[in-house]
Design brief:
It contains twelve helices and eleven strands. It is α/β, with parallel strands linked by helices and 306 residues long. A hairpin with a 5-residue loop joins β8 and β9. α2 crosses α12 and α3 crosses α4. The chain is 37% helix and 17% strand. It has a single domain, classed as Alpha/Beta hydrolase fold, catalytic domain (Rossmann fold).
């Protein structure tokens, strides 16, 4: 008999609040919606609050919209958190050969969703792959990006800096038991609580009929060689010129633990190209929204109101 684990994506908000010391008087107002992006594909998103979304949040590669749950609760503003193409509940990427790592393709898909669900958003916040996608969005669809927040990423990301993350993402696609996928996740995120990682897995993996577990972001994997590598890094580097041409306010939130993929050279290059950019250092690894979601929320709040 298969041991099933029941999953309700809206059942964990009290745990988020308790772990990070947030006031909690009942579940927040949040719903899942999807938007048509052409060629029969749809992107899925979490819409927080009843008002017009003031922020758009884009997660990193191999993550999903729920990575922002505690940040969204701390901000307590109407906002939109998307599942990038091929992640979470969203359909897979478009026809570009780069697949999920095509920042241009992702930006076009995200733009269609923002126009439908958050056309007046005051800022776009992007972490890792979501941050690179946000840069491409600002270059190709500047009318949708009024402020830009990059969370632990610049176009200077390379294979060496992201080696540990790439190894984790390119690891096993399925696991026989939940305890197996949890153990691997704990090994990769040694500084995080087991409870937060357990929630993250439930949002980011699906239990199959035989009881095994499969990462959600692998559901739309294309046949052929794995994505990434040197070609992807070269494509990301082109985004330096795009970022340098951005005219809206920009803030980089840089994690200062060893797991960060941003170094001093990246920060210096950002400030060389955008001298007025705001740079904030925070005690976190690469996934700042998981390591210090409340601190990140404070920085975002100050940036959009200041």
């Amino acid at each position: 008999m298969v041991d099933r684990i029941e999953y309700d994506e809206f059942a964990y908000f009290a745990d988020n609040a308790s772990e990070y010391g947030l006031a909690y008087d009942g579940p927040p107002v949040v719903r899942r919606e999807s938007a048509e992006i052409g060629d029969g594909r749809r992107l899925s998103a979490l819409v927080w609050g009843d008002g017009e979304p003031e922020l758009v949040l884009l997660h990193g590669g191999a993550q999903n919209a729920h990575t922002w749950d505690t940040v969204a609760m701390a901000l307590d503003r109407p906002l939109l958190a998307l599942d990038l193409p091929g992640h979470g509940h969203s359909d897979g990427p478009g026809p570009l050969p780069e697949g999920q790592l095509s920042t241009t393709g992702n930006a076009a898909d995200v733009a269609a969703v923002i126009r439908e669900l958050a056309p007046k958003a005051r800022a776009v916040v992007g972490m890792s792959l979501g941050g690179l996608t946000s840069i491409a969005l600002a270059g190709d669809h500047p009318e949708l990006v009024r402020r830009l927040v990059l969370v632990d990423v610049t176009p200077g990301v390379n294979g060496g800096k992201a080696q540990a993350i790439t190894a984790f993402v390119n690891g096993p696609a399925t696991f026989p038991r939940f305890d197996d996928i949890l153990a691997r996740t704990i090994e990769h995120n040694a500084g995080r609580s087991e409870s937060s990682l357990r929630r993250g897995i439930l949002h980011n993996a699906v239990q199959l009929d035989d009881g095994s577990w499969q990462w959600r972001y692998r559901r739309f994997e294309r046949p052929g060689p794995p994505e990434g590598g040197d070609d992807a890094i070269r494509r990301f580097a082109v985004l330096w010129d795009v970022l340098g041409s951005v005219t809206v306010p920009v803030m980089l939130v840089r994690g200062m633990r060893p797991q960060s993929v941003v170094d001093d050279d990246d920060e210096a290059e950002l400030l060389r190209r955008l001298p007025d950019a705001r740079v904030e250092h925070i005690d976190a690894g690469h996934s700042v929204q998981g390591d210090d979601p409340v601190g990140l929320a404070r920085l975002i709040e100050d940036f959009i109101t200041g």
